[in-house]
Design a protein that fits this description.
Layout lengths: L4 E8 L2 E4 L7 H14 L3 H13 L17 H5 L2 H5 L34 H13 L5 H17 L19 E3 L5 E8 L7 E8 L2 H13 L5 H11 L1 H9 L4 H17 L19 H10 L3 E3 L1 H29 L2
Parallel strand pairs: 3-6
Antiparallel strand pairs: 1-2, 1-4, 4-5
């Protein structure tokens, strides 16, 4: 199931308004993952990461969404991939893995879109570039930034599942009284020729809630450094267990997929049936799934936050530890 890349500028019904596209974990979440990983890097891995990023800095002309730009090299690198895909829509499919609700673990491989790729394949490809003795230094730096970012993305449950709804982007929700609105957005198809065109989008939606809004409530009053330190301490007792599980990316994706089924969808006040999988390119496909979901009038408040919050915290901590595992294995 292909998704559209939603541009940063959309046209609302009453005029032009600026808004970001869906970004897994948002700025704070990706930075938290990077900072937790940094706490667990070997001295050699930390030195190599900092050298690669310093010697091949991010293009200063690139428009950055997360501001102010973090002064920590890893935290800054963690959000680069979302900015980069604005001008490189061919990388859009690298950020997620559309495993349909109701799928079986044994069938996971067939859901990685060969033309657009998927996050597990993208992680392997970028790690291969980092390990290559002949790869260009600038390409290695970009590969490192992708790896730092994708380690976060793969742990966002709605980046590893779909119900013909683009990972929850087509599920309008009310969130603590904020009612969903319908907007016309400029999008690009994640495959050639990447032609911009208008589609209907909904804000807030289930994906957006999991990307940033749950996290924003969890971290209120804390800096990203404080929040990362809190999660690192909170999950100290789980770290050894996560490390023993190894680095099997398909397992990480499936774990996220199950959390989406059990919590992201499972704890919704109005239960959403599993759709028969079809190819969707917008929220108007699959018999206008966005409009059908809007009629459900999903209203998320404190009970949903209480269920989802602990999952978000654990997935962020787990992503940080697993990112450190990838980098420590590369540079022991």
């Amino acid at each position: 199931m292909k998704r559209f890349l939603i541009a940063a500028v959309f046209v609302a019904l009453v005029g032009c308004v600026a808004a970001p596209e869906a970004r897994a974990w948002g700025c704070e979440g990706h930075q938290t993952v990077a900072l937790i990983a940094e706490m667990h890097l070997s001295p050699n891995a930390l030195a190599m990461v900092n050298k690669i990023l310093k010697d091949n800095p991010i293009d200063p002309a690139l428009k950055r969404y997360c501001k102010p730009v973090s002064t920590d090299p890893m935290a800054d690198a963690a959000t680069w991939a979302d900015d980069y895909r604005e001008d490189h829509p061919e990388t859009e499919g690298w950020h997620f893995f559309d495993i349909p609700r109701g799928a079986k673990r044994r069938d996971i491989d067939k859901y990685c879109d060969v033309s657009a790729s998927c996050i597990t394949a993208a992680l392997k490809a970028q790690i291969a570039i980092l390990k290559s003795p002949t790869a260009d230094a600038a390409k290695k730096a970009d590969a490192l930034r992708f790896v730092i970012h994708f380690a976060g993305d793969i742990h966002q449950p709605l980046h590893c599942t779909t119900n013909n709804d683009q990972g929850g982007n087509c599920v309008p929700v009310g969130y603590f009284g904020s009612e969903p609105a319908t907007r016309t957005v400029v999008s690009k198809h994640p495959g050639p020729p990447y032609t911009p065109h208008n589609v209907i989008a909904y804000y807030p939606n289930l994906h957006q809630v999991w990307d940033s809004r749950i996290l924003e409530r969890l971290s209120q009053g804390k800096t990203v450094d404080q929040f990362a330190a809190q999660l690192n301490q909170q999950f100290q007792f789980m770290i050894a267990s996560w490390q023993r599980q190894g680095m099997i990316f398909d397992n990480w994706a499936w774990e996220s997929h199950q959390l989406a089924e059990e919590v992201s969808y499972g704890d919704l006040p109005v239960k959403i049936p599993i759709e028969a999988p079809v190819t969707v390119n917008s929220c108007s496909d699959d018999n206008d799934i966005g409009a059908r979901m809007l009629k459900l009038n999903e209203q998320l408040g404190q009970p949903y936050q209480d269920d989802a919050g602990p999952v978000v915290e654990e997935q962020l901590a787990k992503a940080g530890i697993r990112l450190s595992m990838i980098l420590n294995q590369m540079w022991p």
